[in-house]
Write a structure and sequence with these properties.
The protein has 158 residues and is of the alpha+beta class. It has 6 helices and 6 strands. The chain has a 6-stranded mixed β-sheet.
Length: 158
């Protein structure tokens, strides 16, 4: 996950945004409503996907978005990363499906939400293939230069 912050996003580790990455056990393993999926090829981690019981934070995201996806009832997909050399083989789609099935089987979740960085190659086409776009913050300049955030919802599996 840290590799992604530095190599893909270009801005590195930001404590306010990435606390979960330095406390994986406390964030994902000790809470039964949270999930961490890790894809391994040989001895290398090649993909991750996480679920956390938290909606988008306001700020930096709009208040109406935080109200639409409140913490507690929102399963937020996070850290959906696949190393570039392992992309386009269905790995992200499989991990996202498993994460959504987890959310559907976990009491209290009413919606599945995520946001992505549209500057990452392939991110928007991938998310448009599995989710419904809710808000494109690039159109408002809301996050400032350098942030290409697009918000999505995935239908809850039955």
């Amino acid at each position: 996950m840290l590799d992604t912050f530095y190599r893909e996003f270009g801005y590195g580790y930001v404590p306010a945004w990435h606390r979960d990455v330095v406390d994986i056990a406390g964030t994902y393993l000790e809470d039964p409503r949270h999930l961490l999926l890790v894809a391994v090829h040989g001895d290398e981690v090649v993909g991750t996907t996480c679920v956390r019981s938290a909606g988008p934070a306001h700020p930096p995201h709009p208040r109406w978005l935080a109200e639409r996806y409140p913490s507690g009832t929102t399963a937020q997909l996070l850290r959906v990363y696949v190393r570039p050399e392992h992309r386009r083989h269905g790995l992200a789609r499989t991990m996202v499906r498993q994460a959504c099935e987890f959310a559907a089987a976990t009491d209290g979740y009413e919606s599945i939400y995520l946001h992505t960085n549209a500057d990452i190659a392939g991110a928007l086409p991938f998310w448009h293939s599995v989710a419904k776009e809710i808000f494109d913050a690039r159109t408002t300049g809301e996050h400032g230069p350098g942030f290409a955030t697009v918000h999505f919802e995935i239908p809850m599996p039955r």
